[in-house]
Amino acid sequence: MASVRNKVNPLLIPYVLTWRRFGFRTICSSRIGFAPSTSPSFADADTPPVAGKKILETFAEEFEIGSRKITLETGKIARFANGSVVLAMDETKVLSTVASSKGDAARDFLPLTVDYQEKQFAQGVIPTTYMRREGAPKERELLCGRLIDRPIRPLFPSGFYHEVQVMASVLSSDGKQDPDVMAANASSAALMLSDIPWGGPIGVIRIGRISGQFVVNPSMDELSISDLNLVYACTRDKTLMIDVQAREISEKDLEAALRLAHPEAVKYLDPQIRLAAKAGKQKKEYKLSMVSERTFEKIENLAKEPIEAVFTDPTYGKFERGEALEKITQDVKRTLEEEGDEEGLKILPKTVDTVRKQVVRRRIISEGLRVDGRRLDEVRPLYCEAGNLPVLHGSALFSRGDTQVLCTVTLGAPGDAQHLDSLVGPSSKRFMLHYSFPPFCTNEVGKRAGLNRREVGHGTLAEKALLAVLPPEDDFPYTVRINSEVMASDGSTSMATVCGGSMALMDSGIPLREHVAGLSVGLVSEVDPSTGEIKDYRILTDILGLEDHLGDIDFKIAGTHNGITAIQLDIKPAGIPLDIVCECLDPAHKGRLQILEHMEREISAPRIQDDRYSPRLVTLKYSNDALRRLIGPVGALKRKIEEETGARISVSDGTLTIVAKNQSVMEKVQEKVDFIIGREIEIGGIYKGIVTSVKEYGAFVEFNGGQQGLLHISELSHEPVSRVSDVVSVGKQLSLMCIGQDVRGNIKLSLKATLPRPKSKTDISVDEPVAPTSPEVNVWAAIEDVSNEQEKEVANAGPETSESTVKSATPAVLIRSAVECDEEEKSAGLNSKGDNGSKSASKSDQKSRMSSSFLESSFSSRNAKSKRRKDAILDLLSDDESEQKHTSEVGLHSKIGSDKNDATTETPMTANKLKLGMKVTAKVHQIRALGLVLDLGGGIRGMYRFEPGAKRDFEVGDELRVKCSSFSTKGVPVLSLVKEE
Q1: Which end of the chain is less crowded, N or C, counting CB atoms within 10 A of the terminal residue's CB?
Q2: Which residues lie in Low complexity bias regions (predicted)?
Q3: The pTM is what?
Q4: Based on the number of CB atoms within 10 Å of its own CB, is 43 exposed (0-12), middle (13-18) or buried (19 or more)?
């Protein structure tokens, strides 16, 4: 028994003395859990202990906004945090926690950090990264963190400089709700529960508009068809933050949306207050870094007059003004050092900045004059230049005052789109705007690091502003990337990015619906110290960086002539009345129109690009088997083409998209693609091929993805050629034109059709093919997609419809190898020596390499089954209009020189003996709606199509004198009546 006891309690402490034996209470984060009411007796000392049940005291509030049930819960999760709340909407849950440092570090700012995180477990997915875990914060996470930070930061008390960290993470996501707004409200509730001094609560709401009707708390599906995405944050009576993405919404409609959003957002406040009353902590008395009245007055008396002298001189530039103000600060510092005022030296920078703020604001309100001497509604001087970097796809330089931004546009393939791993929203985006704020733009020294919250936020704002005017993806399938490089910064570089990006897109040839421009509006207000209400205020158009720093708001508004496309409002005081916010829309609209006028003078329509630098995009249709051949094993072949040419290739179901830097690169890629998988043969089309064998009568050429064609000696040159080897040799690469198909089914190629005709007095042959005059790339449909369905359409359509349909269809041609042609020549030679009855016809089926389809042979065997022969003829007669058109194209060159074979033969007919132009006597075998099926003897069937105005009253068994005029693609003779002399 002792050994057993030792295993249970290695420290040899008797079980009767353990904590849970006496039913002691467990204290955890001010919440109490009790051990089980029934505990083992002393007699049962050897019985294994039973775990107690901890009772977690939780508090919850339920309410409804926009027909959606919302729950706030605390006490169950993250109980050690200063404040923690789980907010749930449908099946999406977000946890937000808040904590504050205990130390009193000396600083003059609020070190507030807001982190938002989306982990893949929230949607039941394992990350696809190498380590199978989430990495650095993604752009969306940074943006959501900023969305939470902006409305809560102004509500911390002045002088509260303790470090605060807010962390929001998504616990589960059903994909129906965007967790960003939920995280903002949960963070507000967590701050209310904590002991951190904060002037909340706040409410955050999202408003959409579908078919002209506003929607509160729209789902992701509703948001995808909405022309407005408004996120609004407020206290009970003041606005704190606005974020808008819209499709040219008017100022009037936007104001209506804001008026609706405020009362809906206020509905979040009372549940938070009730939850804090149940489970909140008492706010602690934190030490505030406040400036004594005596010290402030002392520094103000030393610095006020020199600062006023600087701010009343409009000749100062940004850096000259900054140097003068810094000199004033140093002069005050020397005075305090001489007097030994340690307190004044400690708070000097913050106090001097407060004096600057008072001087600037008082002068704007009382005199209506700004730092640079402009009127309140005046826009700074503008400079626009589009296409300043002609080698790039698109570029523009935009300057407004001292702010200067260089924007460039790069076009790519659909496969270059950015892949997104967010819990909600689309999986990729094809339009990206990357904003860069290098240290030199403010004459500073700094280190370039990874993703910067400010850069990501400014770039996304400009991206949303321009997204509304881009053409649809079906009309413009490119992936577009804009790079915005800030060259000089003195206020509102994000809005300068909107203007420069719009011009760069026009310069790249993208058909934008409208130009987009943007500017920032500021506010300077005078507040009653006793009530905190605004007594007087002034609205500033196109603010400087200094006016942004010393003012109350930074209201960025971008849009077109027709309406607003994006808004971002940041507020420094603890809220601004909504009436003043709406009043700012009008001066922003007037200033935007001035900027748009200057931009349109520089470039007002998409530019026509130079072929040397403009990118090219081509979409081709192929069968999936052909695309698999192009990709190669593990995509090796596709990557090799991209490395050799520099182009981008994207493959989807039956579609091949190629994006090249210019036309020459595009031609190289198409050549390589044609050699690998080819394209559907088109009469008159020019193809590049390689000579594989040379014969006395011509050469065989491999082209178009392994297909073979015959280059006859007569098609080598406009001049007579005695030997084929004098012109071509094995391995030589040629550009050839497809001119038709011979009787045996070989593709006929011509070299002379691609060569210029010699200047001599020669007769022009009517059958000479003409080279295409346009270098446009055609999109060929796969043969298997055309032949069967189109034949049925032709059979059911009238003559005019049938003819037009066949014109658009590619003729079906049959390819035979050089070896097979050699065998045919030998067979033909034996037959010419008298062996008429022992030789059978050529094979009836040959495999075609065009679009991975199989076509029937040109001739049927004499020993073929009767049913198969009959079905083939009836099938052809059902669309004889198509066959007539086809034979007029494919058989054009076969008819040349056939008159000398125009002889009458009465010998028994065989498939080998029937030649073009041969006259025979045939019997009517069947009478069809569009023509006759004729029996030529020897088991050979032919077809005759009724001619307009000709005799049609035939009977089965009638004998007719006919002539072989051509052959169908399936080898069936097409006959015509011989007129009796």
Answers
A1: C
A2: 849-861
A3: 0.68
A4: exposed
